[in-house]
Amino acid sequence: NDGGRYRKEAAAGGAVLAIVILAVLSARRETIQTRQTARHQLEGELFGTISHDAKNLVSDQKNGKKKIKTAALITNPLVSYHFQEDIQKLCSRLDYYMKKHDRKILLISSAAENEGKSTVAANLALALAGRNKKVLLADCDFRKPSQQKIFQVSKEAAKDFAEYLQNPAKAPLNSVLAEKDGVTLAVNQTGYDKTQQLITNKQMKKFLQEQKENFDYIILDSPPMLVAADAEALLQTAEEALLVVRQDWSIIRDINDCIETMRSGETHFIGYVLNNLQENRWFPWKKS
């Protein structure tokens, strides 16, 4: 009995030690761990926070028992209440801000990949549409587009947004735009190499100016800023910019460099959204 008790105590002690080691190593990476760290270490305003929500698995009706991953969208009944509330709070603040400053075109980016910028863009578009706003979400991450996966837009539903920018005569606007859950989408099924040509050409500027007359908001899903210069080029066409910062992901110095870039152009930097936030994840017994 004593031996079993000692083994349990040793196992518990080892688990606590492992958590402490992970916490120390994580802190030494100089990433954003808490809201307080974000407020003290990042330039600009903390515009909102989005709670962590585990990726959902649902049954694929076509394949019987097979499970498929679905995006964490507010239209998905499996997402948590806190996640939905965070999106709605962010939407309310964004809607108020954009109307107050008479803005329509919002660019959403991140420092690195996998910070959740595309999911944040999708959810903001859905939340605004749920408030009877006419919303256009354009996937301008031409290298690694993801909105077609998030909204499950088939190849038959719409041609690539990039095709329209390259040659609107062959791919007219009505063949490019699709609608899902009240949001008008301009997506891409495949990645493209010459992205700067797509972003900086006259057709992009013409497209955005024309759609400002048709929509209340235009959201541009931009590539990560540390991956390519595409986001910096897109800043020339947007009116406002929002940076998505995932908890414990990108280095603080890199995030601030991206914020400085967003601030340096004509586009106004609204602030950053702290995404995938898990309060006291290393020490759950502590109060928030």
The number of strands is 10
Number of helical segments with 4 or more residues = 11
Described by strand count, sense and barrel closure, the largest sheet is: 8 strands, mixed
Structure classification: alpha/beta
Q: How large a portion of the residues is in β-strands, by DSSP E?
A: 15-25%
Radius of gyration: 21 Å
Low-confidence stretches: 282-288
Give the CA-based shape.
globular
Give the mean pLDDT.
88
Q: Provide the spatial order of strands within the biggest beta sheet.
A: 1-10-9-4-8-5-7-6
- Series of H and E elements: HHEEEHEHEHHHEEHHEHEHE
Which bin fits the share of residues in helices?
25-40%
Q: CA-to-CA gap between the ends? A: 39 Å
Can you describe what's shown?
It is a single chain. This protein is of the alpha/beta class and 288 residues long. The chain is globular. Strand 9, helix 11 (252-264) and strand 10 form a beta-alpha-beta unit. Helix 3 packs across helix 4 (117-129). The chain is built from 11 helices and 10 strands. The strands form 2 sheets. An 8-stranded mixed beta sheet has the order 1-10-9-4-8-5-7-6, sandwiched between helices. A two-stranded antiparallel ribbon has the order 2-3. The longest helix has 27 residues, at 2-28. The two termini are 39 Å apart.
